[in-house]
Design a protein that fits this description.
By secondary structure, the protein is of the alpha/beta class. The protein has a single domain (36-362), classed as TIM Barrel, CATH 3.20.20. Helix content is 38%, strand content 15%. The chain is built from twelve helices and 13 strands. The protein has helices at 3-12, 17-29, 70-74, 119-128, 149-160, 185-206, 223-235, 272-286, 301-310, 319-324, 328-343, 356-362, and strands spanning 46-48, 51-53, 57-59, 80-86, 99-102, 107-110, 136-140, 166-170, 213-217, 240-243, 265-268, 291-295, 314-317. Helix 8 (272-286) crosses helix 12. The protein is globular and about 50 Å long. It starts with a helix and ends with a helix. The structure holds flavin mononucleotide. Residues 60-62, 65, 84-85, 99, 108, 110, 112, 139, 170, 173, 216, 245-246, 267-268, 271, 295-298, 317-320 line the site of flavin mononucleotide (FMN).
Length: 365
């Protein structure tokens, strides 16, 4: 943790989690974040799904749901920022309180339920920045009371394709009842048919390059689910998988922790092992060329490196930022560079998949 953040954190943590979150968005919006020297290391540049990323570490969805601060987020050193989840209609989400800190574990539980201002406002903000540099992905979802969820995803693709660097189809939030059913069987096929057709149709109509489509999955998948999702995403020409969203499991968490049994998705350090295992399982199922984005419990360089060694091309984090502060991304990047210096590694991709098999043998924890 930086010194400034070690002073600020106790004050922020006296606020309810959502108040602290709102305050941090306002600070980013108003330029109140101290200038951060972002290390630039050409060994960290990666090209994934046709996009050239300055470094592989991105901000995960859920922090900047309404695309209020993507450029300020990029100035923290992130190689890319993902906004959303955005649903067609604005929606309030579940009743407050719905976010809980578990500081002893470096974790959060949330059951926000896709609270967001809807497509129109976010589109306007993204349209206003579309000529700026910086990679900004848009994560799309379905309204809770939608009569046709597939149509909501198609609407998200059509709306944001012109302004997004890539699109993420989020079918793994545990907080919209029934949403995760879209991860399996015919539901998944029907969804992927529709979203890929919408993506390809827009690109053909406007004679512009196709924007990559990533699918974001849950960590709570069994071996058969992993095999069938891998099959479906390759069949439909999906460009990448984001592994993973939050978990509904609580195994491995101390039983005496306050908030442990709150309903919702658990993120942060306790998610690391399972999400990394599922990432490795997808790497094995999909082979070496498929793009994988590793998310879940990254809060230092060692964990970032382990995700890459499991098979990740790109990384994302959210909860680590809550506990580690705004300088964490640059510290993680600097520490990855130092690890490469010490071990004679010439490019970050040399570490990719080095330990897929070992991580699979160790199990999901
Ligand atoms: C408060 C909160 C809100 C989130 N909202 C979203 C969301 O809207 N869409 C989404 O795809 N993931 C959402 N996530 C999941 C994160 O993007 C990420 O997949 C997960 O937290 C694991 O990464 P982490 O351990 O680094 O936080 C949210 C996570 C948290 C903690």
């Amino acid at each position: 943790m930086s010194r400034a953040y070690s002073l600020a954190r106790p004050l922020l943590f006296r606020l309810a989690p959502e108040k602290a979150h709102r305050l941090s968005i306002q600070a980013l919006k108003n330029g109140l974040v101290p200038r951060i020297d972002v290390p630039i290391d050409s060994r960290l540049r990666v090209s994934v799904a046709g996009i050239a990323f300055p470094n592989p570490l991105g901000l995960a969805a859920g922090y900047d749901k309404d695309a209020e601060v993507p450029d300020a987020v990029l100035r923290l050193g992130f190689g890319f920022a993902e906004v959303g989840t955005l649903t067609p209609q604005p929606q309030r989400g579940n009743p407050i309180p719905r976010v809980f800190r578990l500081p002893e574990e470096g974790a959060l539980i949330n059951r926000l339920g896709f609270n967001n201002e809807g497509h129109a406002d976010a589109y306007e903000r993204l349209d206003a920045r579309r000529r700026k540099p910086g990679i900004v992905g848009v994560n799309i979802g379905a309204n809770k009371d939608s009569a046709d969820r597939v149509a909501d995803y198609v609407a998200g693709i059509s709306r944001f394709e012109p302004v997004a660097s890539y699109l993420t189809v989020n079918i793994s939030s545990p907080n919209t009842p029934g949403l995760r059913k879209l991860q399996s069987g015919e539901d998944l096929d029907r969804l992927l048919d529709a979203v890929m057709a919408a993506r390809n149709g827009y690109a053909a109509m406007t004679a512009t390059p196709r924007k990559p489509v990533f699918v974001k999955v849950a960590p709570d998948l069994e071996r058969d689910d992993i095999a069938s999702i891998a099959h479906a995403v390759s069949d439909h020409g999906v460009d990448g998988l984001i592994v993973s969203n939050t978990t509904i499991r609580r195994e491995g968490l101390r039983t005496d922790l306050p908030h442990r049994d709150e309903a919702g998705g658990l993120s942060g350090r306790p998610l690391f092992r399972r999400s990394t295992y599922v990432l490795a399982a997808f790497r094995r199922a999909l082979g070496p060329d498929f793009a994988l984005i590793g998310v879940g419990g990254i809060d230092n360089a060692a964990r970032a490196i382990e995700k890459i060694e499991a098979g990740a091309d790109l990384l994302q984090m959210y909860t680590g930022l809550v506990y580690g502060g705004w300088t964490l991304p640059t510290r993680i990047l600097a520490d990855i560079s130092q690890h490469m210096d010490l071990n004679g590694i010439r490019h970050v991709s040399e570490m990719r998949c080095r330990r897929t098999d070992a991580i699979l043998s160790a199990g999901p924890g």
